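Case study 2.
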Amino acid sequence: MLKLPIAAQKTQFRPKQGHWTYEDYLRLPNDGRRYEIIKGVLRAVNAPNFRHQFVAAEIFGELRNFVKKNNLGLVLAAPFEVHLSETVRPVQPDALFICRKSLPSANVAFFDGAPDLVVEVISPSSARIDRVTKFEVYERAGISEYWIASPKTRSVEVYTLSGGEYALRGEYTGEAQ
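Prediction:
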């Protein structure tokens, strides 16, 4: 069960889990924490540790360099809001890619729709969310490719959307080409 920030606990507003909306999210106090709403459930995103951030930064850097070199679009890193549907917004993937044809204007506060690629770096506290909950909502939203990176195993699982479902394209380690 999510423990709400003290300021939110003292206010009248406190939707039940499963009933959170983006408007409720906007009323949360700015307490420096990151939150996501998935299927109407508010969840606090734990601050990542060094290993998580190192892996996320490495993936972001390599992906950004490739995308920039080939003029394919834009790569962004968390925190940045993605709105997938009315009940799945915001989510803040560790990294995401948006192809050139789908780029939003420079002054938007969030990306509305499905990015072309989403990357999540798992940790013990996020593994179930990333492997089950987010897997399902990213698949349903039509995100073409989903990468799950594991600092523990030093691997990346690459899933591609095929017939509306994710199929494992491969699992790659630092030594793989």
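The two ends are 42 Å apart (CA to CA).
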